[in-house]
Specification:
about 375 residues, alpha+beta, 2 domains, 6-stranded mixed barrel, rod-shaped
């Protein structure tokens, strides 16, 4: 009889044992799938955090740091976003030229907030727009959509800008008399090109903030800055606190999930191997009869492999159903406010199926090595 057909008959005849083995295998597969799902969700959340939170690298150079050099540095592969900042004196204001207002440290930390409209974005390059402080807006009856006439310090150039946002600076007005352009309420943010129109001298970058994905990428950015600006001509400040607070816990969850997967795989192989070993011991008489009838030993091992595989595949299907139901609950195991939804993906199912088949093979072949040492006469005459 074909050993595959014999394996099917054995599973049917020993239905209670087959169901018990299926339940054990389903639990193992469900745990494996849970580990893969948690690891995958942690990887997605880590990638999202690297993109949205990242690490801010602030570069300051006293001389020679032009917007063009800042743009070239911003084109580095490790940079996700960047913002060079320039300061221009205008009558009677202080005008700051920016590329991406949200990356300025006060706005990034949240101490300074846009209360109306929006911030200046990279898409505003070439447009004469502005974000003004709310005290300036209130005093001059300015609102989003209105126009502010900005004038260069020498009075030669006037640039009308459209207000796209109003921000609030928590800094109070100074108690002592202060020049109007130094008052915190007289600050205006415009795109870099607009700041250049108002400047009476070549525009220099006071500082530039570059957002990268992870702290270990700061060395690459620093090497690029060495080539562009000259080694030792600038200072670098790396702010990775937000990254450490939100990304590192997610990384630990992912590493723990990967460890759990391998522990379960090894433990599952050991448990199923022990079960198969006991089954082989109980079926010694059957094996002896088959061997005496001329059945090859590798086919006996193959029969057990087929039996375990036939149990493993439906166990994977049951694990997938359990994963689809329990996936949302696993999302709560991930730290951080923006928890990723855990979903069953084909890659995870394929990994579980592969491991399940590997476990079934190892748990069958290793105990089955003993079959190779069996002799029909010794088995059939054994009274144990």
């Amino acid at each position: 009889m074909n050993f595959v057909k014999r394996a099917g008959m054995s599973l049917v005849v020993r239905a209670s044992r087959t169901v018990a083995l299926l339940a054990i295998f389903a639990v193992i597969c469900a745990l494996l799938l849970g580990g893969f799902l948690l690891r995958g969700a942690a990887a997605r959340q880590e990638a999202a955090a690297q993109r949205d939170i990242g690490v801010d690298v602030t570069i300051r150079s006293p001389t020679g740091f032009t917007p063009e050099l800042a743009d070239r540095l911003g084109a580095a592969t490790v940079v996700h976003r960047y913002n060079p900042e320039t300061r221009v004196s205008a009558d009677p204001l202080t005008v700051y030229g920016v590329r991406d207002l949200g990356l300025l440290l006060p706005f990034s930390y949240g101490s300074t907030k846009v209360t109306q409209g929006r911030a200046i974005l990279p898409e505003d390059a070439g447009r004469d727009v502005a974000v003004v402080e709310q005290r300036l807006a209130a005093k001059n009856h300015l609102a989003v959509g209105g126009t502010l006439q900005t004038r260069s310090a020498d009075g030669r150039h006037t640039v009308p800008v459209t207000i796209v946002g109003v921000f609030q600076d928590p800094s109070p007005d100074p108690a002592l008399p202060t020049a109007p352009r130094d008052l915190p309420g007289n600050a205006v943010y415009v795109p870099l090109a607009t700041a250049r129109k108002l400047s009476t001298a070549p525009v220099a970058v006071t500082e530039a903030v570059y957002r990268i994905g992870a702290p270990d990428q700061a060395a690459q950015l620093n090497a690029q800055a060495d080539r562009l600006l000259g080694a030792g001509s600038f200072t670098v400040q790396v702010n990775d606190k937000a990254y450490r607070d939100q990304v590192r816990p997610v990384q630990r969850v992912g590493a723990f999930a990967a460890l759990v997967v391998w522990v379960i795989a090894v433990a599952g192989a050991l448990v199923l191997g022990l079960i198969v070993m006991l089954q082989i011991r109980e079926r010694r008489s059957e094996l002896g009869v088959l061997l005496s009838m001329g059945e090859k030993k590798w086919k006996l091992i193959g029969q057990h492999v087929v039996e375990m595989t036939a149990v493993a595949l439906p166990a994977v299907a049951l694990a997938v159903l359990a994963g689809a139901v329990a996936g949302p609950a696993l999302a709560h195991a991930l730290p951080g406010p923006g928890q990723t939804t855990v979903r069953v993906e084909p890659v995870a199912v394929a990994e579980v199926a592969g491991l399940a088949l590997g476990i079934s093979l190892v748990s069958t072949v290793v105990p089955g090595i003993g079959i190779l040492r069996l002799h029909p006469r010794s088995i059939l005459t054994d009274t144990e």
